[in-house]
Each structure stands twice: as structure tokens, then as C-alpha cells.
TrEMBL record:
Protein name as it appears in the record: Methyltransferase domain-containing protein
Region (Disordered): 1-22
GO biological process, one term: methylation
Residue ranges occupied by any Methyltransferase domain in the UniProt entry: 54-148
Keywords linked to the UniProt accession: Methyltransferase, Transferase
Record-annotated membrane-spanning stretches: none
Native organism: Pseudomonas guineae
Amino acid sequence: MSSHPHSSPRLPNAGAGQPSARRMLSRLVRRTAQWRAQQLISSALKLADEPSLVLDLPCGADGFWPLLHTSNSRVVIAAEANTERLAAAMAGLAPGLASRVHPLQTSAFAIDLGPNAVDCIFCMHYLHQVDEPQRRLALLREFNRVTRDCVIVSVWVDGNLEAARQPPLNRRNGQVHARAQIEREFINAGFGISGHRDFIPGLAMLRLYVLHKLS
């Protein structure tokens, strides 16, 4: 799955004789997606009361750390099960972030941290890959154990144009979630829903939920 905040829209065919125009359009799409991601993540962090210690899980090979570090006092634990991916992410870390990003090799289903260890868990582009409800519940309950306060999690939800255009297989295997169902799962895992942020309301299926721990 893409590690970017949203899969880039399909580019129009610029024609074989116009490679430079196609590259320019591709760069524009990426920059627009990055700008929108910055908006969404900043808004979600504000709704989460600007947490100081964030667990980015799974962080992927190109983490969201520059976006997470909108606060100079925020510290990020970059967690990944894949050691090579984690090493690649840390090797590409900008010098200014090195002192505030700490690597952790761990599974999302058995996080190698104690209860209430972090202020917030930040989880992008992972939950929609967990297609069995019981496994999602186990994951969310592990998040509930480790976070002291909140979780920011991305989900692909229905009720928008992009979800309606997904192949039937993606809708059947749980990658695109019914909003009512996934919100019930959040509540069953011990979270209250503080709010959500849509990538493009009514059009894109990517939604960021901000969840607060109930107990």
C-alpha cells in the first residue's frame, strides 16, 4: 500500500510526445496531496490536544515525521515490524529530526511498550489492510492498552465517489469500511470518537479518525 496520505489520482494520458508535461503534472499532484496531508494531520493533532509523545506505527520507509513535528517539543517513536524498512527510514532521517525520532522494532499486535506508554498512537494506511473484524478488534485493543490518551488512525470508508468506484473485491474483503461498522469497532475497543477529517469530503475515501481512550 502507498505510504502517502492518499493514493494519487489517476493521471491523464499526456501522450508519448509530452513526457515533461506528464512529469510536471505528477509533481503537482504529489505536492497537492502533501499539502492536503499536512492540513489533515495538523488538524487531527489539534483535535488530539497536541500530544507530546507519539507512537508512529507502522512508520513505513518514509514516515510522516516532518508532518508530525509541527510542535518543536513533540517526540516520535518510529515503530515497524520490518527491520529493513525501519533501518531505511532512520537512514533517511533529516538531521534536524534525529534527536526527536526513536526507532522501535515491534509488531502492531504486540507492541513492545507498557500500558499508557505514549500520549498518542498515529496509524496511517494500516487498518484497512486488516480485513478480519476480530483481528481489527485485537489491534485496536492493543492500541487502547498502550496509549494514555488518544489514537489518530486512517481508514478507507464508504459513502464517497472513490469508494463507489472501487472493484467489488476491495469492497467485499473489508478494505473499504462501512462507516457505521468501523465506528462500532472503535467503541467496542474502548474508544470514543472525538471527530474525523476527510481527505476530500464526498470524493475521497481516506478519513482520519481521532479517538480518545474512555478508561
